[in-house]
Amino acid sequence: MEVNFEGNEQRALLGGDLNSSVPWAEDDRWWVRIPAQHTLYYLEVFRTMLYSFWNDKTLALLICVPFALLADPPTWCAKWTFAFNYISLIALESRFISTAEWIWLFSSPTVSTVLTEALPHVFPLMVGITSIIYEEISLVQSFIIGSLITNLLMVSSPGTGLSWLIGGLRFRSQSAPTTSMQSIAALTMLTVFPFIPPTFISPLYKLDPENTALFTLTITETVVMLMIYVMWLWFRYQSHVELFEWENAWDDNSPPGDHRLTGQRALPIPSRLTYIFWLIFILALSIQCSVNLIQTIPKFVQATSMSRLFIGATLLPFTSSLSNFAKTCVIAYDDRMGLVMHLTAETALGVGFFNLPALIIVSICIGHPMLLEFDIFLEVSLFITVFMAAISVQTAVFNYLKGAMNLALYGPPSYPQMT
C-alpha cells in the first residue's frame, strides 16, 4: 500500500470521524505529525536539490570542495591537490556569482550598480593577490593577459567565440547597431594599451639594477589606467546612461528567480542577510582553495610537463570565467548579440584597467612589486587577439563562422605555453 503523508485515503468517509481525514502532517498525535512533517520537509529539500542539479550542472563539482580543504600541499600528491582545488574554485565561483545575482535582483539601483562592477572582480583579484603573497609574480602577469585572451576569444563573461558560434547555429546571421559596434571595437583596441608600450620601453631600462625607471613607469601607467576606468564608469552610469538603456531592458524583462539568470526555479527565498552570510562563507572557502592551489604549483610544475606560463595564461582564467558561460549562451541564443558585445568590452576593460592596476598596487603594498614586464609571446598573442576581435566586431554582423575562427585562434597560442 502506498503511504500518503498528505492524508489517509484508506479511511472511511461515511460513518467515521471527519477529523480522522486530516493530513498526517497536521494530525493531533505528535508521533504521527512530527515524522510526517520531517518526511515532507526532506522530500521537498530532495526535490529542490534535484531540480537545482538538473539546471546547474556545476553543483556536482562541489563534491571536490571537502577534498580540496583537506588536501595538504606539502604531503598530498601535487596532481590531486591541484585538481581538487582547481575544480573547487570553478564550482565555488559559480555559486558565488549565482548567490550575488539574487542580491542584485532585490537591491536598490545604486547597490546593484556597485555589486555589478565589484563582485565579478573578486575571484580574479583573489587568485592574483594569493599569487603575489607567495611571490608568483610571473604567474600573475600571465594570468592577467590570459584572462583578456580568454575573454575576447573563448568563454568568459562573455566570450565572443562561443557566443557567435551558438548564436550562429540558430540564426543565419546576427546583427547589432553599427555605431555601437564601432565604439566597442575602439574599446577593445584600448585594452592592449597597458601591455604594449612597456614592452618597447623596458629594454631601455635594463641597465638600471634597481629598475627605478621601470618602477616609475609602472606607477604612472597604473594611475592612468585607473583614471580611464573611473571615466568609463562615469560615462556608463552617469553622463551617457541613455546609451545603455536598451541593454538594461533585457534584464528587466527577466523576472526575479528566472532560470536564465540563476539556474533556479522560483522558490520562497531566504532573507538578504542570509545570502550575504552565504556569500561570505563561499568566499572564505574559495580563499583557502586558492591558497592550496598556488602553494602546490611548484610541485605540480615539476610533476607534469606544464609550465607556469601555461597554468597562468590558460588554466587559471577559467576559474573566473565558466560561471557566466550559460548566461552568455542564453543571450546569444536569444539573438541579443549587441548585449553580448557590450558585456565583452566591459569585461575586457575591467580586466585591463581595474584588475591589473589593483594587483600592481597590492604587490607594492605587500613588498613584492609587480612591474609591467610581460612575456613577449603572450603580448604578441594578446595583440593578435585584440586586433582580430576588433576587426570582427566592426562589421556588426556575426555568424557561426566568425565564432569558429575565434575558437580556432584560441587554440594555437595555448600549446607552446605547455612546456
From TrEMBL:
<comment type="similarity">
    <text>Belongs to the Ca(2+):cation antiporter (CaCA) (TC 2.A.19) family.</text>
</comment>
<keyword id="KW-0813">Transport</keyword>
<dbReference type="GO" id="GO:0006874">
    <property type="term" value="P:intracellular calcium ion homeostasis"/>
</dbReference>
<dbReference type="Pfam" id="PF01699">
    <property type="entry name" value="Na_Ca_ex"/>
</dbReference>
<dbReference type="GO" id="GO:0012505">
    <property type="term" value="C:endomembrane system"/>
</dbReference>
<feature type="transmembrane region" description="Helical">
    <location>
        <begin position="376"/>
        <end position="401"/>
    </location>
</feature>
<keyword id="KW-0472">Membrane</keyword>
<feature type="transmembrane region" description="Helical">
    <location>
        <begin position="306"/>
        <end position="326"/>
    </location>
</feature>
<dbReference type="GO" id="GO:0005774">
    <property type="term" value="C:vacuolar membrane"/>
</dbReference>
<dbReference type="InterPro" id="IPR044880">
    <property type="entry name" value="NCX_ion-bd_dom_sf"/>
</dbReference>
<feature type="transmembrane region" description="Helical">
    <location>
        <begin position="181"/>
        <end position="201"/>
    </location>
</feature>
<feature type="transmembrane region" description="Helical">
    <location>
        <begin position="213"/>
        <end position="235"/>
    </location>
</feature>
<dbReference type="GO" id="GO:0015369">
    <property type="term" value="F:calcium:proton antiporter activity"/>
</dbReference>
<dbReference type="InterPro" id="IPR004837">
    <property type="entry name" value="NaCa_Exmemb"/>
</dbReference>
<keyword id="KW-1133">Transmembrane helix</keyword>
<protein>
    <submittedName>
        <fullName>Pc21g20260 protein</fullName>
    </submittedName>
</protein>
<feature type="domain" description="Sodium/calcium exchanger membrane region">
    <location>
        <begin position="275"/>
        <end position="411"/>
    </location>
</feature>
<dbReference type="InterPro" id="IPR004713">
    <property type="entry name" value="CaH_exchang"/>
</dbReference>
<feature type="transmembrane region" description="Helical">
    <location>
        <begin position="275"/>
        <end position="294"/>
    </location>
</feature>
<keyword id="KW-0812">Transmembrane</keyword>
<feature type="transmembrane region" description="Helical">
    <location>
        <begin position="347"/>
        <end position="370"/>
    </location>
</feature>
<keyword id="KW-0406">Ion transport</keyword>
<feature type="transmembrane region" description="Helical">
    <location>
        <begin position="143"/>
        <end position="169"/>
    </location>
</feature>
